[in-house]
Amino acid sequence: MKKIVSLIMAIIMLLSLGNGVFADQIVLNAYSEEYDDIELLKEVILNMNEYEKTLFIEMIQSSIEEQEFYRDNIDRNYIINYNLNDKNSYHDINNSSIPSNNLKMQAQSVSIALKEFNVGIEALELSRTATMLFKSVAASLAAAIADGPLPAGDILLLITGTITVAYLAANWDEIGPKWSRIERLFTRTFSTASRSIRQALSDLKAKVLDKVSEKSDDRKSEGEISDSTEKEVKRKLGSEALRKFKKAVKKGLVGSTNESGIKKLKGKGIQIGRTYYQYELKILGKYGDFRLLGNKDPHGKIIFTILTDHRYKKM
Questions:
Q1: Residues 104 and 154 in one domain
Q2: Residues 6 or more apart from 209 whose CB is under 8 A from it?
């Protein structure tokens, strides 16, 4: 039985927020605006098995900057190898991290493939985090494929579980223009599984584009406080609070933290009575403990109709 147990945790933690069959089964959000890119990378690496991590470390040893990034953000006990021409070989069959059923020729093939991948991914000049995330995917794929034929379904789970839909969507301005080159790099590096990898990457791209479109629609959304809710805010909190809410609603959609404005809530949103509210209007400073909740009307405008405290208890 194929040993991909370490990938399961990464999949559970990092599975895409798209419309996949597993999405509704995941309690934790894989990635959101509140989920730091470096934390995502750290989760991926910590859930690697010993062989995968060995391959990944050997890949980043081609760069002093990546080693320093790894030491500063992932493992403070990591010792940087400043002599780039003197690296331990991950295709050394005496290395205890290599599974016993890997033959020397297989391990050497992994070494050659990942060296070529390294050159290709670094040539794309992506951000440090994106480069290292793609290297982590390559290391996990290499380890799994070297252990024997990998079913197409496992490849799809591996790729979508590590580089999440939400992460790619959030960084699509950088990654999107280079996606075809990234796809060619993966299929060329892992030619024995190229068809399955191409299909997995195609499925992943489709989900990413759906997410990008969804975010674009959200950014265009206008907000409005209903007349009855304006009256309620003024009656219960005062004119100053109402002015702050009306100013915040004009800002439109904002990030998850430290900003006044409209915020899209996670999952189905907040349930009050029989209704789920997908958007909240928040303000900072005085009256920051209060929220307005709302949903889109048929024309796409977000109408705020409910006043709550910060625990989403109706006032």
A1: yes
A2: none
* Dist CA 171 CA 153 (whole Å): 26
Mean predicted confidence (pLDDT) in 176-181: 93
Tokens encoding 201: 């990457």
Question: Which tens digit of pLDDT belongs to each residue from 227-245?
Answer: 999 999 999 999 999 999 9
Residue 173: exposed, middle, or buried by beta-carbon count in 10 A (0-12, 13-18, 19+)? exposed
Asked if 113 contacts 135 with a C-beta cutoff of 8 angstroms, the reply is no
What angle is formed at CA 131 by the lines to CA 78 and CA 207, rounded to 5 degrees? 130
Are 124 and 87 found together in one domain?
A: yes
Strands (E), the chain: 223-225, 261-264, 270-272, 275-277, 279-282, 290-296, 302-309
For the segment 259-294, what is each residue's pLDDT rounded down to a tens digit?
788 988 888 899 999 999 999 999 988 888 999 999
pTM for the whole thing?
A: 0.57
- Specify the number of domains making up the chain: 2
Q: Is residue 209 located within the same domain as residue 225?
A: no
d(CA 4, CA 141): 10
Per-residue three-class SS string for 160-215: HHHCCHHHHHHCHHHHHHHHHHHHHHHHHHCHHHHHHHHHHHHHHHHHHHHHHHHH
Alpha-carbon distance 291 to 257, whole Å? 14
- Picking from 217, 240, 269, the residue at the C-terminal end of a domain is 217
Alpha-carbon span 239 to 245, nearest angstrom? 10
> Rounded to an integer, what distance in angstroms lies between the CA atom of residue 315 and that of residue 309?
7
Give yes or no: residues 10 and 135 share one domain. Answer: yes
- For residue 273, the enclosing domain spans 221-309
Angular region, 269: left φ>0, alpha ψ -120 to 50, beta rest: left
Q: How far apart are CA 238 and CA 226, in angstroms?
A: 16
